[in-house]
Amino acid sequence: MTAEPVLPTKTIAVSTRTICGIEELPSLQSAGVTHVLSILDPGFPELPAFEAYGAHRRTTLNFHDIIDPIPGQIMPKRGDVEAILAFGSDIAQDSREGHLLVHCHMGVSRSTAAMITLMAQSDPEDGEDDLFARLRGIRPRAWPNSVMIGFADDLLSRDGRLVEALRRHYAHQIEHEPRLVEWMGNLGRSREVEMADKG
Fold first, then answer.
1. Who contacts 76 (Cβ-Cβ below 8 Å, separation ≥6)?
2. pTM (predicted TM-score)
């Protein structure tokens, strides 16, 4: 599987943003990635793909992609989103032209939630629906983890607007790819499907 095309987006410190899954990491080894946020299941082994990357700064977070407690799994916590925002603050201090890569296992949920959190942080005046439209431009299959978005909304003082825009985003995704309903149901994410604001 090859990574979907990277698109330039408005940001403070980086000129290119990419979201991908683990299988796509080797295809980005020559893409000039300068900053990496890895979100992996707890206990997942180190990824050898990064050995072939050029010089880059990388932060790794470990929690499962769930929205309700499951025995033996670790929920996303407020502290995880605080760590994502701290990562974003570090990027903002770097004056280099950069390429930000955010990945999780499949590049669908945790990584897309993290990316839109970073976008909302770096462009605080941008509207929430515009942010989600830009997210879809980067990763068309985006289905952000709703728990992470809830924490981001609060930490960024978006007053519920980011969560409401997420509901519209879910509806957009379901309309354009109806199989997501079954997929999310199989993953125990039916509550997010029910969140979708279909107008």
1. 63, 64, 66, 110, 145, 147, 148, 151
2. 0.92
Residue the block writes with tokens 């669908």: 108
**Rounded distance, CA 58 to CA 44, Å?**
16
Q: What letter represents residue 91's amino acid?
A: I
Distance CA 148, CA 69 (A): 14
- Residues of the chain with confidence (pLDDT) below 70: 1-13, 95-96, 199
Find the DSSP H helices in 32-160.
78-92, 110-122, 128-138, 146-155
Distance CA 90, CA 68 (A): 30
User: Could you give the domains of the chain?
Assistant: 7-158 (3.90.190.10)
Q: Strands of 99-103's sheet, edge to edge?
A: 7-8, 16-20, 99-103, 35-40, 57-62
Per-residue model confidence as pLDDT tens digits over 126-182:
999 999 999 999 999 999 999 999 999 999 999 999 999 999 999 999 999 999 999
